[in-house]
Design a protein that fits this description.
Shape: globular
Oligomer: single chain
Distance between the termini: 58 Å
Strand content: 25-35%
InterPro entries: FAD-dep_OxRdtase (IPR006076), FAD/NAD-bd_sf (IPR036188), FAO_M (IPR032503), GcvT/YgfZ/DmdA (IPR028896), GcvT/YgfZ_C (IPR029043), GcvT_C (IPR013977), GCVT_N (IPR006222), TrmE/GcvT-like (IPR027266)
Radius of gyration: 27 Å
Number of domains: 3
Protein name: FAD-dependent oxidoreductase
Strand order of the largest sheet: 5-6-4-14-15-16-13-17
Helix content: 10-25%
CATH topology of the largest domain: FAD/NAD(P)-binding domain
Family: Belongs to the GcvT family.
Number of helices: 17
Structural class: alpha+beta
Largest sheet: 8 strands, mixed
């Protein structure tokens, strides 16, 4: 649904692949939503690997659509220059130059003189250089949309304007069609490409699509005599603006702070070609900055001051994929003002996804299942989405935290962790202690591409778990209670590992799709014969819950409940963990009596908790699941008893550095639905011969028989002064072979440590991935790195099992 560039692209690419029984419905006219006023920029510098790949697909469409359909897209290759006028911005573009090379994108760091040579209209005052993308361009959003629509109809798709969709028809958790102002239409698939109406349209089918329309500005001057044509687009993040030439004039567009929500109570259904009121009081200071940067603007008259609404999302990332709770309902909305440059590629991805049953690009960051219920709340959206626009052109710092709509979901241990000096970050609405500030240290983030202000404090927490003991408030982790006569059958069908173990055991497992890709990475504790507890990440619990429910047959007796908020959880980890806990309980915690993988209810202090001997940091320890009302008692008990053992509260930054040293995977960062357990080094979890098999087994067996040409490899930089973050390109013997998935500083290993995907030219023996001279490019510098398929820290995993 939706006749903008994304809807028409989806129809076109479906028809191009022979899927011609396609109907596109637009309640007004094509392009009348937000496509008609798109600025037309095509820039490749997105902030994730997957969304850059989407733009690569868009470029293929822009470059080939006219030859195929006979209709022009207006696309011209002009290049884009991201200029830097501050040291922080120049450091950012150096990192960005390296990162985009991992996608094969051409990017050149230019000096001030080189920048001015390419764009002589710039004022050089304060300029430090630029990052130039020579293959970027620009086009006409309206012309491209019409070309896509004509290309779709020429292959048999049908496009109807003036037809509104009033509802989505469903049966047994699957779409069956739509109701329209002209009658019902049966449909096997429905795509919500309704732009800024996506939230309201999704709500009609019970699908959460959190987005909010914001006021968004650009200015077009009168014609400027002698203006060169097709100059590179200039983006100045420090001045919140971009500039491009257009028909002998200049367009100056803004991503300025201080925007505002429009129609947050619901956008009127009959609205098309929306044009909001001018606001020079707001925009004037930002335009004046650009007059200084482009002196030619000083004498140029203004032909158009345009303000049109654009939809933005809480996390600044669009939604592209299947809804978690409604089969065959796909969302393509919330494009944060990059819909034109992403639209042709997004439609191509959706078409392949619908036809092939899986996304051709790894895009966990756009998954609609990441949505939290509170994110569709109007007041939350008004606060958080405005911040998304405010930050669009700011420096994108590592570990940057949002400041709006905070203190929403609080752990039962929020008070004690706050009293201990916690500096909180936010994930999925949860306030989580990322690091702890010692007394006298400011509890704030000071962002940097080098060692951040919290580096040494997180290092001390890391060291405590490696050498003594630490405790981590992990209460935000998702907890799903699965019960019923057929619970074991449901979980075993989903899981690659064997869940049918004795009560009191925990099992680490993956859930796969039919192609063998990893859809979930969880632990399952068998509490009783017909009762299981599934632990998931805070950002993935909703998608895991939906997947569980989706795979319970109507004939099976099995229920699933999200019980995340009913229990606190503390991970007590480190060599001293047993000596700390043993005096606090009557249960024997010895290795013989309480082995690794055991899970039992034990007395602790004056109450009872579920203690599970497992680890995500690579040390001896127990995860304690605690009734929420007893959380303070247990925290205080551990705090007071822990002093002689060197106990420290530990935050999530340290937990991340600890798990990376041990090579433990994180879904959505290191592994996702495009990766299989063999590539990911998780074959040890797969029970090939368990009764009944598992979803994805047939595909995985074919992968095992064929062998793999791609593996997840652990790296540590040889230079201890270098930092890694994510997406940095990996080179082997001088050739680009992959990218970093996630990284942090490994304090026990003495250098930045990362998990990264490496691709070989063909199926190769396992040792190939560890051999050769590896380097990881960081801000233009190739840093030598050591590679390993086994954990570089405690490779035999002896420490957690002693």
């Amino acid at each position: 649904m939706g006749g903008g560039i994304i809807g028409t692209s989806t129809a076109y690419h479906l028809a191009r692949r022979g899927f011609t029984d396609v109907v596109l419905l637009e309640r007004n006219t094509l392009t009348s939503g937000t496509t008609w006023h798109a600025a037309g920029l095509v820039t490749q510098a997105r902030y994730t690997w997957g969304t850059r790949e989407v733009v690569q697909r868009s470029l293929e469409a822009f470059r080939g659509l006219e030859a195929e359909t006979g209709f022009s897209t207006g696309y011209v290759e002009t290049g884009t220059m991201n200029i830097a006028t501050s040291p922080e911005r120049f450091e950012e573009i150096k990192h960005q130059a390296s990162i985009v090379r991992g996608n094969g994108i051409e990017a050149q760091l230019l000096s001030v003189d080189e920048t001015l040579e390419l764009h002589p209209l710039l004022n050089a005052d304060g300029l430090r250089g630029s990052l130039y993308f020579p293959r970027d361009g620009r086009g006409s959003a309206t012309d491209t949309t019409i070309a896509l629509a004509r290309g779709a109809t020429s292959r048999g798709a049908r496009v109807f304007e003036g037809v509104g969709v009033t509802g989505v028809l469903t049966s047994h958790g699957r779409v069956t069609g739509v109701s329209t102002t002209s009658g019902d239409i049966e449909a096997e698939y429905v795509v919500n490409a309704t732009g800024m109406w996506g939230r309201e349209f999704g709500a009609r089918a019970g699908v959460n699509v959190p987005l909010q329309a914001l006021a968004h500005y650009y200015v077009i001057t009168e014609a400027i005599e002698g203006l060169p044509r097709n100059l590179p687009t200039v983006k100045s993040g420090d001045e919140y603006a971009y500039v491009k030439d257009e028909a002998g004039a200049l367009m100056v567009g803004f991503f300025e702070p201080g925007s505002y929500a429009w129609a947050s109570n619901g956008i009127p259904d009959n609205k098309g070609y929306v044009h909001l009121s001018e606001d020079w009081d707001h925009l004037g200071p930002f335009y004046e900055q650009m007059v200084e940067r482009f002196p030619v603007l000083a004498d140029a008259g203004i032909r158009l001051h345009f303000c049109g609404p654009e939809s933005f999302t809480p996390d600044g990332q669009y939604h592209l994929g299947e809804a978690p709770n409604l089969r065959n309902y796909f969302v393509a909305a919330g494009f944060n003002s990059v819909g034109f440059l992403s639209g042709p590629g997004a439609g191509s991805v959706l078409a392949d996804w619908i036809i092939d049953g899986r996304s051709p690009i790894d895009l966990p960051e756009t998954d609609p299942a990441r949505v939290q219920k509170h994110e569709t709340n109007r007041r939350f959206l008004e606060a958080r989405v405005v911040e998304s626009l405010d930050l669009s052109y700011e420096v994108h710092w590592p570990f940057q935290q949002r400041s709006s709509a905070r203190n929403l979901r609080l752990s039962p241990l929020y008070g004690p962790t706050d009293a201990a000096g916690a500096v909180f970050g936010e994930l999925a609405g949860w306030e989580r202690a990322n690091w702890y500030a010692p007394e006298g240290v400011d509890r704030e983030y000071r962002y940097s591409f080098e060692r951040a202000n919290w580096f040494e404090h997180s290092a001390a927490e890391h060291t405590a778990i490696r050498e003594t003991v630490g405790m981590i408030d992990t209460s935000s982790f998702g907890k799903l209670l699965v019960q019923g006569r057929d619970a074991v059958a449901v979980l075993n069908r989903l899981s690659v590992n064997d869940i049918d173990v004795e009560p009191g055991r925990i099992v680490y497992t993956q859930w796969l799709n039919e192609q063998g890709g990893i859809e979930a990475d969880v632990t399952v504790t068998r509490v009783a014969e017909h009762e299981f507890l599934v632990l998931s990440g805070p950002a993935t619990v909703n998608r895991d819950l939906a997947r569980l429910r989706r795979h319970i047959d109507d004939s099976e007796f099995c229920t699933v409940a999200d019980v995340s908020g009913t229990m606190a959880m503390i991970a007590v980890m480190g060599p001293e963990a047993r000596r700390l806990l043993q005096p606090l309980t009557d249960v024997d915690l010895s290795n013989e009596a309480f082995p690794f993988g055991a899970s039992r209810e034990i007395d602790l202090g004056f109450g009872y908790v579920r203690a599970t001997r497992v680890t995500y940091v690579g040390e001896l320890g127990w995860e304690l699941l605690i009734p929420a009302e007893m959380a303070h008692h247990v925290w205080n008990l551990l705090r007071d008893a822990g002093a002689p053992h060197g106990l420290r509260p530990v935050g999530y930054h340290a937990m991340n550095s600890l798990r990376l040293e041990k090579g433990y995977r994180s879904w959505g960062h290191d592994i996702s639905s495009a990766d299989d357990p063999i590539q990911a080094g998780l074959s040890f979890t797969v029970k090939w011969d368990k009764p009944g098999g598992f979803i994805g087994k047939e595909a995985l067996e074919k992968i095992r028989a064929r062998g793999v040409d791609r593996r997840l490899v652990q790296f540590v930089l040889e230079d201890p002064s270098r930092q890694l973050f994510h997406d940095e390109p990996i080179y082997r013997n001088g050739a680009l072979v992959g990218r970093v998935a996630s990284a942090q500083y490994g304090h026990a290993l003495g250098g930045a440590v990362a998990l990264g995907w490496v691709t070989a030219p063909d199926v190769v023996p396992r040792p190939w991935f560890e051999e050769g001279d590896y380097a990881i490019e960081v801000a233009g510098h190739r840093a030598p790195a050591r590679a390993s398929l086994r954990p570089l820290y405690d490779p035999k995993s002896e420490r957690p099992k002693n």
